[in-house]
């Protein structure tokens, strides 16, 4: 009994000291965590600011030399005297290929996601889902090589002649689908981009479709709705914010893709109304010419990079604003 009393007395006398030390240790750990996360966040901002400053500094000679005409000039002749360099053709190619890619990838990707969540047998969902996700892991240069050796010749020998003959003589469409077939074209690059961004749209759409409460779908089926009606009136409205977010993520990937597009677009600095004509994009132009550039030529390529940065920023900012508006509307 005496030993127990002595032990209890020792614990009571040591208690306040131990609690104070534990509290101090907790506060130290909390402060350490707070400042570590804050420094990491500041490093991200510093990195972003450093990239912007380096692009502005590198492109400043081209900005001074060409000014606003850089955006409206189609010709790209770095070896001319004086050099004539314009961004109109790469900007046009970047926007066109991304838009065509999204037109192809969005319905296909969302359709695959709907099939996987609503119609696909359970035994086939995992293999198909894994196959789609594996597409995202293939290096872009592999897509480019496959497009150059396999897809390009196939399109030039089968698909392109069909559309050229189908719309020959038709106003507007005859120009869009006109011209001789080509292994290297804006359309071929757009199709490669569509295949590359398809896994992002499919995977994100599938995940957000899976968040729909089963009770909502069961209630719709209970009143006699078909699968299409359930998808249209329950699944898509409930998940539209997440789906749009996935689409915007895929669009950002399409705008900045480099190697696969460089292989198959043709790298031609001219604007043609035909999607079967060769062209170029901002990233493809930088990748194909930067290693051998110097002086004003290199500065112009840096300015192209700055334009791509600004274009991507505004696209993602617009997407963010649209998502916020949709969230507010859904909340109200």
The CATH topology of the largest domain is given as MetI-like fold
Main sheet specs: 2 strands, antiparallel
Strand order of the largest sheet: 1-2
Shape: flat
Q: Multimeric state of these chains?
A: single chain
Any low-confidence stretches, pLDDT <50, length ≥5? none
Which band does the percent of strand residues land in?
under 5%
Q: Average the pLDDT over all residues and give the rounded result.
A: 89
Give a count of the beta strands, DSSP E runs of length 2 or more. Answer: 2
Q: Domains counted in the coordinates: how many?
A: 2
**Strand/helix succession:** HHEEHHHHHHHHHH
Radius of gyration over all CA atoms, rounded:
28 Å
CATH class of the largest domain: Mainly Alpha
The percent range for helix content is over 70%
CATH architecture of the largest domain: Orthogonal Bundle
First-to-last CA distance: 69 Å
Please work out how many helical segments DSSP would assign.
Answer: 12
Assigned CATH superfamily of the largest domain: MetI-like
Structural class: mainly alpha
């Amino acid at each position: 009994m005496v030993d127990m009393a002595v032990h209890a007395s020792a614990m009571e006398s040591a208690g306040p000291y131990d609690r104070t030390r534990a509290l101090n240790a907790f506060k130290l750990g909390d402060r350490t965590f707070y400042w570590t996360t804050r420094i990491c966040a500041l490093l991200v901002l510093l990195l972003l600011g450093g990239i912007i400053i380096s692009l502005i500094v590198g492109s400043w000679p081209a900005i001074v030399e060409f000014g606003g005409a850089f955006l409206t000039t189609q010709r790209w002749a770095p070896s001319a005297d004086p050099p004539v360099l314009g961004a109109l053709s790469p900007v046009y190619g970047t926007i066109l290929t991304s838009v065509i890619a999204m037109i192809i990838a969005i319905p296909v990707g969302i359709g695959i996601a709907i099939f996987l969540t609503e119609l696909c047998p359970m035994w086939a969902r995992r293999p198909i889902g894994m196959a789609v996700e594996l597409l995202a892991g293939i290096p872009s240069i592999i897509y480019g090589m496959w497009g150059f050796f396999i897809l390009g010749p196939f399109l030039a020998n089968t698909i392109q002649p069909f559309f050229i003959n189908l719309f020959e003589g038709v106003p507007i469409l005859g120009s869009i689908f006109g011209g001789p077939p080509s292994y290297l074209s804006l359309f071929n690059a757009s199709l490669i981009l569509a295949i590359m961004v398809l896994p992002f749209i499919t995977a994100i759409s599938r995940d957000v479709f899976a968040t729909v409460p089963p009770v909502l779908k069961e209630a719709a089926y209970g009143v006699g709705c078909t699968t299409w009606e359930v998808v249209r009136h329950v699944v898509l409205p409930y998940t539209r914010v997440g789906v749009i977010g996935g689409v915007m993520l895929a669009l950002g990937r399409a705008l900045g893709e480099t190697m696969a597009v460089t292989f198959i677009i043709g790298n031609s600095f001219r604007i043609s109304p035909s999607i079967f004509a060769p062209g170029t994009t901002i990233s493809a132009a930088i990748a194909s010419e930067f290693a051998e550039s110097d002086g004003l030529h290199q500065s112009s390529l840096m300015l192209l990079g700055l334009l791509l940065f600004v274009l991507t920023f505004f696209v993602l900012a617009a997407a963010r604003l649209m998502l916020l508006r949709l969230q507010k509307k859904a909340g109200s």
